Amino acid sequence: MDLATLWFFIVGVLFVGYFVLDGFDFGVGMSLPFLGKDEVSRRQVINTIGPVWDLNETWVIVAGACLFAAFPEWYATLFSGFYLPLLLILLALIVRGVSFEYRHQRDDIAWKRRFDGMITIGSAVPALLWGVAVGNIVQGVPIDADKNFTGSLFTLLNPYGLWVGVTTLLLFFLHGVYFVGLKTDGQVHHDAQALGKKLAIPTVIFAAGCVVWTIAIAAGREAPLLPAVIACGVIAAVALLASIAFNWVDRDGKAFAAGAVTIVFAVLTLWLALFPYVMPASNDPANSLTIANASSTQMTLEIMSWAALVFLPLVLAYQGWTYWVFRKRITRTMIEKAEASAH
């Protein structure tokens, strides 16, 4: 395997990590209107991701930086062509981050409710638009001979792109609800399990459609990794059904773990369907960006490989330690004691 191909898979792994980790952040934010019945329960929900949400977001920064360094042609075409949806994702992430920090700055219910709404919107928009973006990358978009995207925002809002977007939104929503159930007690815990049961059927329907449609696209262009695409799709489906079953029998940890496996293999299904392209051209295959024609020089890839070998294990170790430190449940009693001491 040459270094360009290796970095195609490394970038894919980084995006897998981002969608698993920030995915449940998005889900927690989207669950706030359904699980936050009062201020204490809303703080329970938000505090489940309070110590980790910003750390989870660094994965997309690393993934974007690696994409820029390893595949500059891909980066240029992607970020110029998908400028508006990526800008909306960025603005939503800013709104969400600001809301986490500012909602507790004033002891006023209306003030907090406004920021709670911004958290929900700032979570739902990226969950949808990331799926739309990835779906269009896999399906292919119009690209001219100079490797420029020639479509518009409405080009991206096609049936497959929107279907993948709704699928990622539902998967992240369900993943976040499992996390809330794992990390809380009392009414919020029970409400999260109930909400997970309600989300099960629409999530299965959209996820199944997404897998079948993606396999059909990969088969249509005779993707060399088609068997792996099918295998990943099947594993994702089995893991999703397992997570739903675990939620029904109150096994929160196993439900969350199975939900994480679902997202891992769902993203791998999309990523492997793309190979050996990085951005197929829907108008003329000759204009497609491939791993070979979009990658950096050999020296650049070698330097990046040594840097990744040194720093990636350190990042993983630090993130694992952070989750271990904040592994305890966020109980209602804990929040009530904190409020009492603050007053």
From TrEMBL:
Alphabetically list the UniProt keywords.
Answer: Cell membrane, Electron transport, Heme, Iron, Membrane, Metal-binding, Transmembrane, Transmembrane helix, Transport
Q: Which Pfam families match?
A: Cyt_bd_oxida_II
Claim: Acyltransferase is one of the keywords in the record: no
Signal peptide start-end: none
Q: Where in the cell is it found?
A: Cell membrane
Q: How does it sit in the membrane?
A: Multi-pass membrane protein
Q: Which domain of life is it from?
A: Bacteria
Regions that span the bilayer: 6-32, 77-98, 119-140, 160-179, 199-219, 225-249, 256-279, 303-326
Q: Which family does it belong to?
A: Belongs to the cytochrome ubiquinol oxidase subunit 2 family.
Kindly provide the name given to this protein in its UniProt entry. Answer: Cytochrome d ubiquinol oxidase subunit II
